[in-house]
Structure formats: C-alpha cells, structure tokens
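Q&A log
Question type: sequence-to-structure
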Amino acid sequence: MLVRFLMLALVVSVAAAFAMPDIPQQRALSSALLATAVLAAAVFASSSAIAGLVRRSGLVLVLILAVPAIYMAFQLAPVPIHGLGNPIWETASAALNAPLAERLTVDIRATVQAVLHYNAAVALALVTAVVALDRQRAWQLLSILVSIATTVSAYLLLRQAIGSDGFSRGDTPVLVVTGAVPAVLGLVLSAAMMVRAFEDRRRVKQRSFRVATTLWFALLAMLLCLSATLASGDGIGTATAALLGVGIVLAAFAIQNWFSGVWGIASVLATAAVLLLAAFTLMPMRPNADLTVALSEHPSGATERMLQDAGHAGSGAGTYAALLPIHRDIAAPLSRERPTAAAAIAIEMGRPFLYSVLIVAVLGAGALLRCSLRRRHDYVYAAIGAGAAASLVVLALVEDGILEFGASLLAAALFGLAVAQSQRDMGAATEQPHSTRPVSGLDSPGRACARIRSYGIGNASMRIGLGCIAVALIAQTVWLLTQPSYPGRLPVEALAANDASRQAPPRVLPPNSLRGDGDLRSGRPGHAPQPTANGAAASRPELGFQAAAPTVLAQALRSSPLRGDLWLMLAALSREQRSLEYDVAALLKLSYYTAPNDLTLLPQRLTAALGEASVVSDPELRELVQRDVKIAFARQPALRPALIAAYQSASAEGKALVDNLISESDSATLQGTRKEVPIPWPKTDLLLPNRTSDRGTAR
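Response status: OK
Response body:
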C-alpha cells in the first residue's frame, strides 16, 4: 500500500509539473504531494528499505545534495559586513526611506522560489529511491518514466507540426515545456528499456508476448523521442547530448555481453570517446564568445553582458529574469533572450559553483558507470544515470531546459532510480540475526553488535532526515499558498490608458485587483496583457489606485528591488497623491536604472518625469529623460504620440526641456507638440515583456 501511494505521488507530481502552468498553486500541489510521500516513507517504510537507502546515500552524496541548498540560504541571509552585499539594497533603502539589509541576492522572492524548486527535486529523488529498491518496482518506474517522456516528446512533435499556438488552451500551452531535456532523457530511458527487454528475451530463449510488447513499446518511444530531439531548436547540440547518453547505455551493454575484461572495457570506452569528439566537432561554436553560451544557437547579447558583470558569488538563485531588463537591448522582447543553463547558473550562483556542478556531474557519471559495470544483472539502471548525467552536462551548454520545473523533476526521478539500483541489495544477508559460520574474525560477536548498532543509528538518522525534509516541504506549501503570486510585469496601460484616464481622479480598485506584490490583474493568473494601442486599453474598465497602493508597492520592492515597472508605478502614485513620503525623482531614477530599455514603460515614465519640476534641477535625471525623449523622437517614431501626450501634461520646466531638445532637429514637430489637441496612440507591434519563472534559475 505504501509503495503504491509513493508511486502515485511520483507520477502525479511529475505530470502536474508538465501539464499545469508554472504558478504557485501548481508548485504547492507538487510540494504537498511530495511532503506526504516523504513523511509516509519516514514513518511507514520497512527497516530493510531504510537500511538500503542508507547504504546508497553515503556521506558524500548527502553533502552534494546539501551544498546547493546551503549556498542559496547563504545568498538569502543578510550580509553582516557593509559593502559585501549587492549595491541595489543600499540604493533601494535610500529611495524607500526604509532600512534594508544587504544580501547577495538581488531578488528575495525569486531566490526563495529557487530553493523551493530544489527542495521538491531532492524530495522526489528520495521518494523514487525508496520505491526503486525493489527490482520489480524499479522496472515499473522505468516504464512510467519512459511513458512520461514519450508523451512530452509527442506533444513537442505535434507543437512543431501544427504550430505553438494551435495546440494550447487560450494563452497557456497544454504542456509547459520549451527545451529538449524530456526528449533526450526519454531517448536514454527507452534505449535502456530496449536493452533490458533484449536481455530478458535472450535469457528466456523463447518468444514471450510481454517481452515482445516491451520491445515494440521501447522502439516506438525511442523513435518519438529521437524525432523530438532532432526537431528541437538546437538540433546538433541536443543530438550530440542524446548520442552521448545513449552511447553510454549501449557501451555498458556491449561490455557486459562481449567485451568483458580490462582491455575490452578500454576498447569500448576509447571508441565511445572518439565518436564523441567527432560529434563535438560538428557542433557550431561562436568565436570569441563566453564558453557558457558558445554552443547556443539563440540570441545571447544580454546574457553575455550579464556574464561580464557577474561576480564570483552570483546574483542569487533564480534572479536571471530580474537582471535581464537591465542588460537587454532597446525594444528587444524578453522572450527572444534564451540563455543556456550554464550561463544562468554562472550568473545566479557564480562561476565557481558552475564549475563545481559540472565536475560533480562528470564524476557522478563515471561513478554510476563503474557501478553498472560491477553488476551482472540490472546494470541498465546505473547506466541510465551515467548516460543522463553526461547528456545533461552537454545540454547545460546548449539550452536552459534543465532549469524548468517539469524537466528537473523528471531528471530527479531518473537519478533516484539509478542510485537505488546502483548496487546489489545486501540487506537480507546483513540483517540475519544468526550466522552459521564459526564465530571468528569479522564474525565475532563484538563486530556483529557494532555493525547492528551502526545500522540502527543510520536508520534512525535517515528517518529523522526524511521527516525534516517533509516538514520543509509542508512549510513551503503553506508559503506558496499564503503569499501573493508574482507572475509578471505590470500592465502599463493601467497606468496611462489615454488622455482622459490620466486626467480622471483616482478611483478605488475592485477587491483583489491590486495584489500584495504590486501586480494589477483581473481574472486568472498569468502573463500581463499585451497592449497594442490606447484604444485597446480604453476598451477595458478604467483602473484607479487604492490609497494604500504605495505601501503595497513599497512592500513588494523591499523583496524585489529590480522591478522597474514597480518603481515607476510607485513614482506615478506618489506624484498623483502628492505624497511626501517618497522622493519622486529618486523613484524615477531607479525605474530608469532597473529597466532602461523597456519601451513599454517609456510613455508613463515620460509623463511622470516631465510633470516634475525637480527633473531640470537634477542633472542625472535630466540626462535620463533626454535619452527617452530622443528615443521617442528619432529612433522609435511609433512613440511620438506618447511624447506629445506627455508634453501636453508636462510642467513648464518639462516643456522647456522638450522644446530645447526637439527644436535642435525639427521645428515642425515642436509646433505639433504645442497643440492642445489629443492625439490617439497608433497601433504598434511593441509587446509587453513578461518575466519568466524557477529555473531558478529561471530558470
């Protein structure tokens, strides 16, 4: 009964991670299921199962799993020495007139979500390991993982065939997946299933319906996963990663059956190394590019600038999306910038952490391959882990799919299966209370008592550790359900829909329209709407602001100080309400610094800045406003109506500033801006950029 429940929790968690949108409710569901499963394993699992888990999770493996969580907690902790934290906290503290502790991370909320993501992956790996200690259950888990990976691969193929928008529910895809990680892992899993079925058929030496069905299912899964791998955007890179993973599984099969011995193993590994080097020579590599993005085929201009500014300690797990608006090009949509997982880890956690992860992954692949070669039967499970580890190292340099929630859970389940079957279970022989051998040497009573006592301490420690993980998962489930969601950027048309709405007095928002994180939303959670014109915005009900909105926005900025849209909204509200609590000029500066090239913020930012008399007296802010005016006037003609609207509502000092800038190049346009005739905004193709969620990375 316990095993069935653990398998059900595993399947539902992985399926929900792929099938549901990446929202707090989805992660809360996975956390609740995994918390219940881990707690049930800690309380009701048999002593033999716990002992088997203890033998497979040595001190080194425990430290490897604990170090990332400890490092992310260190990034969240306040830095006791002034100047060692990120400078954004000191700047935000001065702008908000509130004491803020310096931290290594630049976004507390994003890093907390990355911690929750990692905790869920570790918990799923432990649950899988408990279930997979039994050989029969391990085979069932392998079939389940192959089925999940094949389903996702089939979805990717359908999405490629009929278009990304034709296979979705409204604005949300049916399955949340963008990378090729599920397809590559599915290819490795299906190859292992085929090898295992082939060996079963040879051992039985007669035709069996079950074996034949397994072979055909594995072949179909391999074809679908291979097609999805080749159809991905990074065709050569993902194909090389898949070739490496499948090659390790086939190498283990060849060594076990035909090339046993030292020289046979050496010949197979040498052949695999030559083929791998030949495959790497076919991969396109960007010249003079950072190693973490050299193999990527996606635009990475902003990512390379972020890598140049990244420190050795990182900017905080999951903060890539928070840093992207600062470094991206003018009018470049956020969706076009797709980093590799290696680049995201180097930015968020630092290069030393990235190199450590890559080294651990390579060493882990070698250790699992060694475990596979030391087993005569059931060696395919450890070979799966070795192949998957090697494939993920290559994929980390090609794309960022491993940072997605569903892909990371699938990989965690795969490694839990590999570790559980990495060695033969000796629990039955070890736990025999009586021995038929003579009592001498290692079988003396003193040694036996010491061994039994050590196993008892290890079992108790493992149960306590599982209980602590369950408590952590319960706590993060409560946090996800109680904290307001943080899906994306503000709909800027709510700030300045048209000239009439800007002149209208503030109105009270409907209940729950202004969330605690400062996002204005109506309806279901998701990405912010994409404005195309003032007419589209005016068709919606006019939005106002609550009197407590500045306090709510300030609270959100205390945890996420890189939100340029929130700084702009707080400045606009403070100016509208004539609040003396905040300096509007300081808030506008931070909006410029945290989102300098976001053209969707330019209309309202010009309106707020030109309406302030302090703009002219502040040389730094005046230079920033002049930059926006030049962009709207010369480089982005579609934004000229926004400049005209901002000019009409500007103060005398703001109008003089615009006059001086425009009169130098176009006097006719200057006369047009002085007309008091409202000009509707034209339709434009500028899309409202949305923040992406944890990889935390983010990942």
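Response note: Residues 567 and 591 are 5 Å apart (CA to CA).
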